[in-house]
Amino acid sequence: MRNIITLITTLTLIFTSQVFAATELQNKLDKLVQNNDIDGVERLIAEADKLNGREFYERNSDVRKIFAEFFTTHPDYVSFMHKWLKEKPDSINAQTAMGWHFYHIGWLTRGEVLYRDIYYKARDEMTAYFQEAADLAFKSFLKHPTFSPARDLALLTSQHAQVPQSKHALVDSAMGANEDKHTLDLVLRLYSPNWGGSLRMQKKICKDHEEMLLKEAGYTADMCYADQVLSNARIINSKALTPELIKWAIGIMDAAPKDKMLGARWEDAISIRPDREEAMQIIVDILPKRRDASYYYARQVEEQLNKPGYYKEYKRKQKKTIGTISVDV
Description:
Blueprint: H1 2-15, H2 24-34, H3 38-49, H4 57-68, H5 75-87, H6 92-110, H7 120-143, H8 148-157, H9 167-175, H10 181-190, H11 199-208, H12 210-217, H13 221-231, H14 243-255, H15 262-272, H16 276-286, H17 296-304, H18 310-318
Helix pairs in contact: 2-3, 3-4, 5-6, 6-7, 6-8, 7-8, 8-10, 9-10, 11-13, 13-14, 13-15, 15-16, 16-17, 17-18
């Protein structure tokens, strides 16, 4: 179960703040890919990335939306990426796009079973795909550490492959290179107690980056830490996760703006809050804002709150509307 939840958490991190309704940006990319216009895709990425800087964090998320489209197995995109990398082997854009593709294949190969139940040949293939993704990610990241799609992928693949930097060196590079909240979320995941970290380390990271959190996302260090405490309440094994700490974190969450700490609110609703109707109402508020690895909770909302058609409508909205395959994440 822990490995399945890890899969859900990882994929949720990838798509945080990326809504997959058809947009002008995504339609442009789709058209360029269909026409095998490599230079056009490079220009589109450059345009999205030119505002790279803290003050443009929200607008700069466009470049992440572009690279999320390469997290796919669609044959048109796969064919385009191979051609792109062959023609421009030194392009950090081509390297990063292909890295996201391999990372996606790695997760598809892994499946949703417990790690110990993965067929040994599938496990070997999964490892090989993650290594390919990591190699490409670090080629780009080490050349251009401020490039957020490569930085994100370097942080993610470092948990599954051999990489050229230690965890601490990688984090120093990532957080010293035009840091933002999404990068910090990935760093905090690296320091989860389940990945050799601790709640104490996560608390220190939140405190060290409070200035950025306040500026970029309106988060205090306490909100950041409470989010980690509650978001990991089911999946970490730590003596530090005491009832008193959980109670403190819930108090911070309840006092925070309703559009903040969505991971904590989600965890509270599905595993902590005893009033199921109240919990379902929380889930109704959060479901449209995040993507999950199954539609289980949308079905629960429909059944427990007597909302006919809710599951079908939610599922329809979660389907990607441009050329890539539909993936529950």
